[in-house]
Design brief:
By secondary structure, the chain is mostly helical. The protein has a single domain, classed as Arc Repressor Mutant, subunit A. Helix content is 56%, strand content 12%. It has four helices and five strands; from the N terminus they run E-E-H-E-H-H-E-E-H. The strands form two sheets. It has a three-stranded antiparallel β-sheet with strand order 3-5-4. 10% of the residues are buried.
Length: 101
């Protein structure tokens, strides 16, 4: 870090350090979630669409519904692609599937 005076640090450097800390905390939170529940599987929207053999746009609509209703947990490690909890997605899709009665 560049110091402007013996006790002062530039705002840009502070923000850069805070960003690094945030990324580390997100990574720790994700690993903590994994260790709490055993083997937690996270998947992207594209992966889930392939898994259920549907278009990404249709999967997006379903995921939005689940996330809005707080039925599907998400994470976005390191500010990258959003991931969805596969177990939550399975349970949500079963809950909205008509039973055929």
């Amino acid at each position: 870090m560049k110091t402007l005076a013996p006790t002062y640090i530039s705002a840009e450097d502070v923000l850069a350090e805070l960003q690094k800390i945030t990324l580390k905390l997100e990574a720790m939170e994700l690993s903590h979630k994994d260790s709490e529940a055993g083997n937690v599987v996270w998947a992207s929207q594209a992966t889930l669409a392939k898994r259920f053999d549907m278009s990404k746009s249709n999967m997006c609509r379903l995921l939005i519904g689940g996330v809005t209703n707080k039925k599907i947990r998400t994470c976005q490690p390191n500010g990258g692609v959003r991931k969805y909890n596969v177990t939550d997605v399975d349970a949500y899709l079963l809950s909205i599937t008509p039973t055929g009665n």
